[in-house]
Design a protein that fits this description.
It is a single chain. The protein is an all-alpha fold and about 500 residues long. It contains 21 helices and no strands.
């Protein structure tokens, strides 16, 4: 069987792979912090709303595009709406690949901390010594070693193909993640004060919904966590069976990802309130280096004060590593799939992606400022990727897309006209609102002219310059890339 003909063995295999893509470190270390910074319960209400008005519609679109075109992102855009638009798929692909470079570094951190937990390194830690432990680690060359290890492991999984690699890995990773999270919440709820954490997490202050920042943070988190607009589901859909459902699968992925976030949030909120009730809210909102302060600086110290904390910490960081790794292999497959479309064999494509990915991740492994800049630039860039996916549907014809590609062969759940309304109206409006808010905040909060400085880590300018560079490169080479893809198709 050739690479192009290979498919997931069953819906279960497809869903596990798709959920493995969605459930990552963003569920476990990013979601609890963002929820705490935005009030807890009121954030959850808006976050769930955006699951239906941004994430699930884009997941539906990606499933349909991948299933219909049977190509990676570049070829999919070029096939669906015209070869001259292949560059849009190129940007979508590169945005995710750029995230992959530093995401592998974070995955390495998770693996390192799992080993530390197993070895009892957290015993007797206090917040200061825990913070120092993380600083010493990330400022050494050790992250490079773990970065190389996780990239090698991910490359091996992708080398084994769809059924023996992606599907088999996620059959182990996904059940393991959910089992550990459920076990963890049962464990931590035996601690005094844990229920106060859940009360803070789930109790909404409806008056706080007047703060527009809550809405924008909720939208960003939903898009980041579910993988909507990343092009990853589009890639996995290349390998779905022709009679496989699109609408139902999209809802399952969206709800499954949100469920993982809620479980992780319950574990974190309950743990922090149980072990440090006096300043729990402040601790939950802490960011630290590259927004990992809570996970890698505070939690090890908290686990050390907990009965059975060594075992609990080992399970927690194992779940974190498994979540990170399941997402990393999906990013690697995305890059490999786009190269396969140009005529490369899977083995050679993996060699290129693995080598380039390892090298391009080294700056993030060695320099925290570079890491934070790339996280900022390409994290925000996902908004552009999402609007490109919506544009492809609109260009094709939203109603035609819904009837022919979404509700076509294999559709168990028929998707109604609400899909077209969301894609054509709500997603563009939400995109404009986010971009406008971003520019306003940058201009008003940065020092004079610094908001446009492309050398500043968190400026608007650094994003625009890097985005434009990639877009121009793909535009210049669009014709050549698409000709190779189309030539391969004969």
């Amino acid at each position: 069987m050739t690479n192009q003909q290979e498919t997931f063995s069953s819906r279960w295999g497809l869903l596990l792979a798709a959920l493995g893509m969605a459930v990552g470190t963003g569920n476990i270390w990013r979601f609890p912090r963002i929820a705490a910074q935005n009030g807890g319960g009121e954030f959850l209400l808006v976050w769930i709303l955006f699951l239906f008005t941004w994430s699930i519609p884009l997941l539906i679109a990606e499933f349909a595009i991948g299933k219909h075109t049977r190509k990676g992102n570049i070829g999919a855009f070029g096939t669906l709406i015209g070869a001259k638009f292949g560059w849009m798929g190129g940007f979508v692909a590169f945005c995710t690949v750029a995230i992959m470079f530093y995401y592998a570094v974070v995955t390495g951190w998770c693996l390192k901390y799992f080993f530390l937990a197993v070895g009892g390194a957290f015993s007797g830690l206090n917040p200061e010594t825990s913070k120092n432990m993380f600083s010493v680690f990330v400022e050494s060359t050790e992250p490079v070693v773990y970065h190389v290890i996780v990239f090698a492991l991910a490359s091996f999984v992708i080398y084994r193909g769809v059924t023996r690699g992606l599907e088999t890995a996620n059959k182990i990773l996904l059940p393991g993640i959910f089992a550990i999270l459920i076990f963890s919440i049962i464990w931590v709820l035996t601690e005094d004060g844990a229920l106060k954490g859940l009360e803070f997490f789930f109790h909404p202050d409806l008056d706080a919904l007047a703060d527009y920042k809550i809405w924008l943070e909720a939208l960003t988190q939903s898009a980041w966590s579910t993988g909507a607009g990343w092009g990853l589901i589009m890639t996995y859909a290349v390998y779905m069976k022709q009679k496989e459902d699109i609408g139902l699968n999209s809802f399952i992925v969206g709800f499954g990802d949100n469920s993982a976030s809620l479980l992780a949030g319950m574990v974190i909120f309950a743990t922090v309130f149980a072990l440090m009730p006096s300043n729990a809210a402040e601790l939950l909102q802490s960011s630290g280096r590259a927004s990992t302060g809570l996970t890698f600086e505070w939690l090890p110290a908290l686990f050390s004060t907990m009965p059975g904390g060594r075992i609990f910490a080992a399970f927690f960081f194992l779940a974190l590593f498994m979540a990170a790794f399941s997402s990393l292999i999906s990013m690697l497959e995305l890059a490999v799939r786009n190269l396969i479309d140009t005529g490369l064999a899977r083995s050679r494509a993996i060699l290129y992606v693995g080598s380039i990915g390892t090298l391009c991740g080294l700056p993030s492994a060695l320099n925290s400022s570079f890491f934070e800049n790339q996280d900022w630039v390409w994290g925000v860039g996902l908004m552009l990727s999402g609007i490109f996916v919506a544009f492809a549907v609109i260009k094709y014809g939203a109603e035609k897309f819904r009837k022919e590609l979404v509700n076509g062969e294999g559709a168990d759940l028929q998707i109604g006209k609400w899909f077209s309304v969301v894609i054509c109206v709500l997603i563009p409006l939400q995109f404009v609102a986010m971009i406008s808010w971003w520019f306003y905040q940058a201009i008003t909060n940065f020092a004079k002219d610094d908001w446009w400085n492309p050398m500043s880590v968190y400026s608007v300018g650094t994003c625009i310059v890097q985005w434009l560079f990639i877009i121009i490169v793909f535009m210049l080479f669009n014709k050549k890339i698409m000709s190779r893809i189309l030539k391969k198709d004969g």
